[in-house]
C-alpha cells in the first residue's frame, strides 16, 4: 500500500468534514495546525475512521489526537501503513 | 394529578414596558414555502404543501403523504464544514436561524458575549442521519459509523449548532413536549429574557421524513391513511381521519421591547401570555387544554373577549377535535371567535408546528388578515367553531391565541399582541 500523500489527506478531510471558508487546502498546509485549517478533533476523528477502513490499519487514538499538523498526522498514518506492509 | 405553570407578569399595558418580550425576527422553513414571506404569501393564498412523499419510497407504507419543504438546497444554507455533520432538520433549522437573525437586524458577532441564547423545541433529533448510521452499524460494522453520529441525532443538536454557528453563548436549552414544544420553548426563552438575557433565538424546526421516522409516526396511530392530498387532513371536519406529518417550523428572535424600540425596531408583536397544563391519565378526568388557554389569558391580563383569532391545535381526529372545539366554546361561546388551522397546508410539524403557528399569528396581526383552513368545507355539527375556511379573512386583529397539544398530555397556550 503506497504512503498517504498530503493531497490525498486534504481530499479525505474535504470529503469527511468539509472545508472551512477562507482556507486554501491546496496551498502549502503541511505544517499548518488542523485548528487553523478549521478542523476540530472530531473532524480528524471522522477522517481517521475513513483512513482506517480504506487502508485497513489501526491508528493510535491518543497519538492521532496529539498530531497537531498534517505533517505530524501523515507520519503516524504512514508509519502504520509501512508496519502493515512489512507484516 | 395535574400540573400547570403560569408565568406571572406585570399587568398588560398598551405600550411595551421593560421586560416585555417582543418578537423582532422570523425565520421559516415550511412545506408550502421556504422563507418567511414566501411561506406567508402561499399561506394567505391557501396553497398546500402536502404531497406524496418523495424523500423515500413510501409505497409500502399505509400513509403516503407528507409536507416536505420544497426547493431546499443544503449547500445554499449550510457551510461545507457543517454539511457532513448535520441532519436535514438541523440544516433547515440553521437556515431559519440565519433568516430570523437577519430579519431582526442582528449581527450576532457584534453582540457582547453571553448576551444571546438559543432555546429550541425538539422531538428525537436527527432521525434521517441516525437511520443512515444505524444502517451502517448493522450492515458494515462500527468502523463505518460517522463520528458525527455522536451529536447529529441528538435531540439538543439544533440548539447546539445554532449556538455555535452564530456564537450565541447565553443561557440556552431544549424542550421536548411534542407539538406543545413550539410554544413551550418560546415561553422558556421569555423566562430567560425576564432574567436579563437581552436576545433569545427560539422556536422549533423538525423533520423525521425517513423510513425510521415514518415507522414511529405510524406506530403512533394518528396518521391519516387517506391518499388524496386534499382529503387526508381535515381537522374539525366530520370526515377527519388523522393528520399528515410534515417538516419545518419557525424560529423567532425575542428581545426586550424597550431595548428593541431603542434601536428603532418595531417588531411583530409581544408574547403577552403563556401557560402550560398537563392532561390527567386517560380515563382519569378531562383534558386540560381549556385550562391552558384560560391561564394564558390570565397571564396576559386579558379576557376571552379580547381575543380576535385562535390558531387551533387541530389534531384532525374526531375525539381530539371535539375536545378542542368544546374547550373553545366554553371559553368564547359557540362560534364565538374566528378559528383557523393553516397547518392544513403543511401537516403537523412535531416540534416545529406551534412555532410556525406563532409566526402565522404574528403576521396575521401585522397584515390584519386571518389565513384560511384549507380543504375543510365546514366544521362538523359537534364542533361549534367559526372556522375560517375557503380563503383568507380580513379582520381587525390585535390579539391572537395559539393552542398546541403534544402527544403524551402536553397542552400549551400562548397569547400574542400586535406591536403597539
Would you write up a description of this structure?
The complex is a heterodimer of chains A (87) and B (420). With 87 residues, chain A is mainly alpha-helical. Chain A has one domain (6-86): Orthogonal Bundle (Non-ribosomal Peptide Synthetase Peptidyl Carrier Protein, Chain A), CATH 1.10.1200.10. Chain A is 57% helix and 0% strand. Chain A contains 4 helices and no strands. In chain A, helix 1 (6-17) packs across helix 2. The two termini of chain A are 12 Å apart. Chain B is an alpha/beta fold. Chain B folds into 2 domains: 16-262, Peroxisomal Thiolase, Chain A, domain 1, CATH 3.40.47; 272-418, Peroxisomal Thiolase, Chain A, domain 1 (3-Layer(aba) Sandwich). Helix content of chain B is 31%, strand content 21%. Chain B contains 12 helices and 18 strands. Chain B has helices spanning 36-45, 74-77, 88-103, 127-140, 149-152, 157-166, 181-194, 211-220, 257-262, 289-300, 318-332, 353-367, and strands at 4-6, 21-30, 33-34, 50-52, 65-67, 116-121, 173-175, 199-206, 245-246, 248-256, 269-278, 309-311, 338-340, 369-370, 386-387, 393-394, 399-406, 410-418. In chain B, the strands form 3 sheets. In chain B, strands 1, 2, 3, 6, 7, 8, 10, 11, 12, 13, 15, 17 and 18 form a 13-stranded mixed β-sheet that branches. In chain B, strands 4-5-9 form a 3-stranded mixed β-sheet, with no helix packed on it. A two-stranded antiparallel ribbon of chain B has the order 14-16. In chain B, helix 3 (88-103) packs across helix 6 and helix 10 (289-300) packs parallel to helix 11 (318-332). The A-B interface holds A 14, 16-21, 38, 42-43, 45-46, 49, 52-53 and B 79-85, 143-148, 150.
SSE topology:
The complex is a heterodimer of chains A (87) and B (420).
Chain A: H1 6-17, H2 41-55, H3 61-66, H4 70-86
Chain B: E1 4-6, E2 21-30, E3 33-34, H1 36-45, E4 50-52, E5 65-67, H2 74-77, H3 88-103, E6 116-121, H4 127-140, H5 149-152, H6 157-166, E7 173-175, H7 181-194, E8 199-206, H8 211-220, E9 245-246, E10 248-256, H9 257-262, E11 269-278, H10 289-300, E12 309-311, H11 318-332, E13 338-340, H12 353-367, E14 369-370, E15 386-387, E16 393-394, E17 399-406, E18 410-418
Parallel strand pairs in B: 5-9, 6-7, 6-8, 12-13, 12-17, 13-15
Antiparallel strand pairs in B: 1-11, 2-3, 2-10, 2-11, 4-5, 8-10, 11-18, 14-16, 17-18
Helix pairs in contact in B: 3-6, 7-12, 10-11
Amino acid at each position: 500500500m503506497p504512503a498517504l500523500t498530503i493531497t490525498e489527506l486534504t481530499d479525505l478531510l474535504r470529503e469527511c468534514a468539509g472545508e472551512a471558508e477562507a482556507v486554501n487546502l491546496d496551498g502549502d498546509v503541511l505544517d499548518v495546525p488542523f485548528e487553523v485549517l478549521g478542523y476540530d478533533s472530531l473532524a480528524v476523528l471522522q477522517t481517521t475512521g475513513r483512513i482506517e477502513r480504506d487502508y485497513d490499519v489501526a491508528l493510535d487514538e491518543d497519538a492521532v489526537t496529539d498530531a497537531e499538523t498534517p505533517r505530524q498526522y501523515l507520519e503516524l498514518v504512514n508509519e502504520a501503513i509501512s508496519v502493515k506492509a512489512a507484516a | 394529578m395535574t400540573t400547570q405553570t403560569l408565568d406571572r407578569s406585570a399587568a398588560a399595558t398598551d405600550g411595551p414596558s421593560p421586560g416585555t418580550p417582543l418578537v423582532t425576527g422570523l425565520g421559516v422553513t415550511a412545506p408550502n414555502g421556504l422563507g418567511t414571506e414566501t411561506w406567508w404569501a402561499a399561506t394567505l393564498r391557501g396553497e398546500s404543501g402536502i404531497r406524496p412523499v418523495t424523500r423515500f419510497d413510501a409505497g409500502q407504507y399505509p400513509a403516503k403523504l407528507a409536507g416536505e419543504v420544497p426547493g431546499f438546497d443544503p449547500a445554499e444554507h449550510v457551510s461545507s464544514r457543517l454539511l457532513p455533520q448535520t441532519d436535514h432538520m438541523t440544516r433547515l433549522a440553521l437556515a431559519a436561524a440565519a433568516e430570523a437573525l437577519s430579519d431582526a437586524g442582528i449581527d450576532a458577532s457584534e453582540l457582547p458575549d453571553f448576551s444571546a441564547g438559543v432555546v429550541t423545541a425538539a422531538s428525537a433529533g436527527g432521525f434521517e442521519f441516525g437511520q443512515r448510521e444505524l444502517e451502517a452499524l448493522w450492515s458494515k460494522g462500527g468502523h463505518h459509523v460517522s463520528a458525527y453520529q455522536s451529536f447529529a441525532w441528538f435531540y439538543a443538536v439544533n440548539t447546539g449548532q445554532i449556538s455555535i454557528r452564530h456564537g450565541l453563548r447565553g443561557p440556552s436549552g431544549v424542550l421536548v413536549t411534542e407539538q406543545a414544544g413550539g410554544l413551550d420553548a418560546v415561553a422558556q426563552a421569555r423566562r430567560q429574557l425576564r432574567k436579563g438575557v437581552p436576545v433569545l433565538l427560539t422556536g422549533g424546526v423538525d423533520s423525521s421524513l425517513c423510513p425510521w421516522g415514518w415507522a414511529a409516526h405510524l406506530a403512533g396511530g394518528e396518521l391519516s391513511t387517506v391518499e388524496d392530498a386534499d382529503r387526508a387532513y381535515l381537522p374539525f371536519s366530520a370526515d377527519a381521519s388523522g393528520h399528515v406529518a410534515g417538516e419545518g417550523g419557525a424560529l423567532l428572535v425575542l428581545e426586550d421591547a424597550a431595548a428593541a424600540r431603542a434601536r428603532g425596531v418595531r417588531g411583530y408583536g409581544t408574547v403577552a401570555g403563556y401557560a402550560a397544563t398537563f392532561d390527567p391519565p386517560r380515563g382519569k378526568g378531562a383534558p386540560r387544554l381549556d385550562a391552558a388557554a384560560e391561564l394564558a389569558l390570565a397571564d396576559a391580563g386579558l379576557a376571552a373577549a379580547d381575543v380576535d383569532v385562535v390558531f387551533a391545535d387541530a389534531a384532525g381526529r374526531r375525539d381530539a377535535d371535539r375536545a378542542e372545539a368544546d374547550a373553545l366554546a366554553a371559553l368564547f361561546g359557540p362560534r364565538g371567535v374566528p378559528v383557523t388551522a393553516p397547518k392544513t397546508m403543511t401537516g403537523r410539524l412535531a416540534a416545529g408546528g406551534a412555532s410556525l403557528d406563532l409566526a402565522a399569528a404574528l403576521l396575521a396581526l401585522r397584515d390584519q388578515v386571518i389565513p384560511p383552513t384549507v380543504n375543510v368545507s365546514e366544521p362538523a355539527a359537534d364542533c361549534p367553531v367559526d372556522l375560517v375556511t375557503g380563503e383568507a379573512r380580513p379582520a381587525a386583529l390585535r390579539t391572537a391565541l395559539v393552542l398546541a397539544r403534544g402527544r403524551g398530555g402536553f397542552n400549551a397556550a400562548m397569547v400574542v399582541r400586535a406591536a403597539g
